[in-house]
Structure formats: C-alpha cells, structure tokens
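User: Continuing from earlier, I have the next pair ready.

Assistant: Great, send them over.

User: Here they are, in order.

Assistant: Folding the first of the pair now:
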Amino acid sequence: MSETDAEGLVDLPPSAKLVYKVLEYNGALTQKGIVEESMLSARTVRYALERLEGIEAVDEDVYFADARQNLYEITAETSPDNCAEPVVCDD
C-alpha cells in the first residue's frame, strides 16, 4: 500500500472516531467498557475496533482480570498526522 493510499483517522467512519476519542479520554478499556462509554452497539464497536487496528491506531492486549476479554488502548505511535482534529503545537 503506498503512502497516498494509507488510511488515517480522518478517513474512518464516525463510529471509529468516537471509539478512538473514548479511548483517548478514558484510557485502556475492554470492548464492554467502550460500549458503555460510547453508547454504541457491541457490533458497531467491534467494527470500529477492527478499523482502528487496521490502521494501527489501537493496541489489543489481554485483560488479566478476565482473560475472556481484551483490553484496548491507543498506540503510542499514533501520530498527529492521523488525528481527526488539527493539532496545535506550542514551541
């Protein structure tokens, strides 16, 4: 995939952007936690997480409190170029 074909947060559907923002504000959450915070359906959250994982904007890890669930968090490598909103840098 060339750089011009790369998909960023700006190109994702609103549900994926909302899931990203929920993770940004709340930190790492399980899928169930994201459903509760975003008030989206479980199916919509699953789809949004798939899209976010596809662009490597979120990481999936084991939730040790309940190994049947996964914990999702924003990747450290998510650059401002992929953000849904303009970034203001103070020098």
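And the other member of the pair:
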Amino acid sequence: MVYLAGERYNNRVSQTNTFGFSDPTLLQAAQKIYQTYYEVHPDYPGRPLGIAIDRLSHRGYLIFRRKPALLPKECFLTLQQIESGMY
C-alpha cells in the first residue's frame, strides 16, 4: 500500500495510491534502492519494512521503523510491493 504523508495521518488513502501506481518509474527507483542496499550490506541482520521515496526526485531511503515520518512529497512503498515487482 502506498501512503502519502498527509493522507496517511488522515486515514484517507486514495484509490490510485492504494491499488496501483500512477508512476511506474517510482517502483523501479525503489527497487534499485533496495537492490543497492543488499549489494552493499549483504550481511546486515535487519530487514527493512519498506522505502520512503520522493515522488519528484525519486530519491529514497529504507525504513526500519514501524511508523515512518514522511515529508509531504514522499510516499512509502512496502517491501512486499518492491519485491513483487522484482521477480
């Protein structure tokens, strides 16, 4: 499920962000970030919950906490979404 920062706190997730991506390059960017993380840190014991990614610049970072704090231009992609698109 994709959460936009303002929508997540108001429990109003739009159908576009819940059921599909409006920008498939966002998923591809998240997959590259995830892949790079495991290439650089193959033995790291923690498993991320997902990736917070900026919708405009496609820069992102891994989230290991249960309740991520997102900026207004960021959305959260779960690890299940990222892995399902990779295989």
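Worth noting for the second one:
Strands lie at 3-4, 50-54, 60-63, 74-78. Confidence is low (pLDDT under 50) at residues 3-20.
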